[in-house]
Design brief:
The complex is a heterodimer. In chain A, 73% of the residues lie in helices and 2% in strands. Chain A has 13 helices and 2 strands. Chain A has a two-stranded antiparallel ribbon. In chain A, strand 1 and strand 2 form a beta hairpin. Chain B is mostly helical. In chain B, 45% of the residues are buried. The two termini of chain B are 23 Å apart. Chain B is globular. Classes of the chains: A mainly alpha, B mainly alpha. The interface between A and B is large, with 44 and 43 residues.
């Protein structure tokens, strides 16, 4: 039986992991829920965010925190032409077409990042506040993970407010529930989607930046973790903020716990868990049947 | 093809329809071409037959995907699972259990992969769209993780050491140039191809196309949709298993990489490039993909990956019916011109 300290440690590391997963997956969940678009290039946006942070901190000497914000905004804005020119052409196409287009984009992104940054993992200079350990009473924990958890909870709070308490959030929820009805009461769903897509990609980029020191950033990031993001989205239920959060925490903590307790079984547990959840609830935990 | 206006079909129309169906599954001359090429390669490029065998294996893998994706319209991102089962059947038999007879190993690989297809298909094929994509993808990764967990048997990412494959029929060794294995692979591919061709032109195959085109209608006319889908999924899994087994036999080496998402994506890309649901799309797509990859990926792998991504994007936007579709369009332009 693991000790109490080990238990806290699993929970803490799992939560930090989950928050990165949540930050990246939430945009994917909303865009998939809104437009039913299978976006396999979402991981690529996260990766570009990560590499942008690398460039900003290492080559231009921008501090870590502003770099995160700049990367998120830049990738968010850069994603708009992709949505307008490429994605919008395939909204009514089959899932296969969407899968192929976005796998193609992911391949191109991976190749591009390999050309620029090389295939090996990169690291970035962190501010000294984030490199040490901090005492949370039970035991000391890495400050960076604590920072990620704080950022994650702030994101959850902001998104929850935007989703549940603002006009735009209400419009998004309406469009996810019933797109035609939303359109006929005068909501401009196309513009709403472009906006959501940009915000989602920006959040993915932020997650990519946070992931550098937790997952390790290599060009294969775009597809390697994509499976994970997609599982979270489908387990949580498309377009559900709550579902994405619950699924992120569930899979994140289980993954860390599984790897900690039985290193050789590795990721086996979470895929089995995800498979069982999807078999029982095909629309996900909080999805609509 | 006006199948729907049954009442208006006259006797002449009925004869015409029958003629059309008969003509479709009759062998025509153009179908000889790929096989002539496969034989020609053996004599023209005797030092490239090892690579040639790999191309034939990928053709078989793509052909199995065409059966479910192109004909039945099942979108899967986990087809590598069955290729992997086949490869590991051979790997474990020949390295741990002391059995290395190639043909019986193919049969066993087909059976085990088929069982994998039957069991997973039975559960998964009730779902559609995104859920199905996720479930198939998760199944392949689950097998990968299981292989990783039992690295004592599978050798993990380092691969299975010490595979001993016996000579084919006790006579033909896997020679340095891979001549014997090229012939062996081509022969197996031919048998598999005849089987697939028989299936798609049978009433069962027509029912699959019906399911792809309009599931509701097939339900409405009382077609046992789920059973048909599971059947074709099982057959395709068995064929993918044979392809995987051939892969392990020819290279006498296997790693867990065969289960990876990349492998599932790669075979899908091959099929899409060639064209889905047209039997020879797998031949064209896999051959061209493999040759281009061999040419370009050696020098700068990133350029190759970028190129294949770009081709994929352009294919989806402009040439959705694949290379053979493009050729068909060009031919029809030529044919129309004189009239």
């Amino acid at each position: 039986m693991p000790s109490f300290a080990a238990f806290v440690s699993i929970l803490f590391d799992g939560l930090a992991y989950a928050m990165v997963l949540f930050t990246i997956s939430v945009g994917l969940s909303i865009t998939m829920g809104l437009m039913g678009f299978v976006n396999l290039a979402h991981g690529a946006f996260a990766m570009f965010g990560g590499y942008l942070v690398v460039s900003l901190t290492r080559s231009l000497g921008v501090p870590f925190l502003p770099s995160l914000v700049i990367a998120a905004v830049a990738v968010g804005i850069a994603s708009i032409p992709f949505e307008k020119i490429l994605y919008s052409r395939l909204y009514r196409a089959s899932e296969l077409d969407q899968v192929l287009l976005t796998i193609g984009l992911a391949f191109m992104s991976i190749a591009l990042c390999t050309m620029i940054y090389g295939p090996s993992p990169v690291t970035i200079p962190l501010p000294s506040v984030l490199t040490g350990q901090i005492d949370i009473g039970v035991r000391t924990v890495p400050a960076y993970r604590a920072f990620v958890i704080v950022v994650g909870f702030v994101m959850v709070a902001v998104l929850w407010y935007a989703f549940e308490r603002t006009n735009i959030g209400a419009k998004i929820r309406a469009a996810v529930d019933n797109r035609r009805m939303a359109q006929s009461v005068g909501i401009n769903v196309d513009r709403l989607f472009t906006m959501t897509f940009a915000v989602g990609s920006g959040l993915a980029a932020l997650g990519g930046g946070l992931a550098i020191q937790t997952f390790g950033l290599t060009p294969s990031f775009a597809l390697l973790y994509l499976v994970f993001f997609l599982l979270i989205v489908s387990v949580g239920g498309l377009g559900s903020l709550k579902g994405t959060l619950v699924a992120s925490i569930l899979l994140g903590v289980f993954d860390v716990g599984g790897k900690y307790l039985t290193p050789e079984a590795g990721g086996f547990f979470i895929y089995a868990l995800a498979l069982v959840i999807l078999l029982v609830k095909p629309a996900g935990l909080y999805g609509r049947e | 093809m006006a199948v729907s206006d049954v009442e208006t079909v006259s006797a002449a129309g009925r004869a015409q329809a029958r003629d059309l169906i008969e003509k479709r599954h009759r062998f025509h001359l153009g179908e000889v071409l790929p096989w002539v090429l496969i034989v020609a390669v053996y004599f023209l490029f005797p030092d490239r037959t090892t690579f040639g065998a790999q191309v034939l294996i990928m053709i078989m893998f793509a052909l199995s995907l065409d059966l479910i994706l192109g004909y039945a319209g099942i979108i899967t991102l986990g087809h590598a699972a069955f290729f992997g089962i086949g490869a590991y059947t051979v790997a474990i038999l020949s390295s741990k259990l002391g059995w290395g007879e190639p043909i019986s190993m193919l049969v066993l690989a087909a059976i085990l992969a088929g069982i994998g297809g039957l069991v997973s298909g039975w559960f998964l094929l009730r779902y559609q769209g995104l859920t199905l994509l996720m479930l198939t993808m998760a199944t392949a990764i689950l097998l990968l993780e299981f292989g990783n967990y039992r690295a004592d048997i599978t050798g993990g990412y380092d691969g299975v050491p010490g595979m001993e494959i016996w000579p084919i029929f006790g006579v033909f060794e896997n020679d340095l140039w891979g001549h014997n294995y090229y012939v062996y692979t081509a022969a197996v591919l031919f048998v598999v191809f005849l089987l697939v061709r028989r299936i798609i032109y049978s009433p069962f195959g027509q029912a699959l196309v019906g399911i792809r085109e309009n599931v509701r209608r097939m339900h409405a006319i009382g077609s046992p949709v789920h059973r048909r889908l599971v059947t074709v999924y099982t057959i395709a899994a068995a064929i993918a298993g044979v392809a995987g087994a051939l892969f392990a036999e020819t290279t006498a080496y296997t790693t867990l990489g065969v289960f990876e998402f990349d492998n599932s994506a790669k075979v899908m890309v091959m099929l899409i490039l060639g064209g889905t649901g047209r039997l020879y799309g797998a031949f064209a797509g896999a051959t061209i993909y493999m040759i281009l990859e061999d040419e370009f990926s050696k020098a700068v792998p990133e350029y190759w990956q970028f190129g294949i991504g770009l081709v994929l994007v352009l294919t989806v936007l402009f040439a959705r019916r694949g290379l053979l579709g493009v050729i068909e369009d060009l031919l029809s332009v030529f044919k129309r011109r004189p009239s």
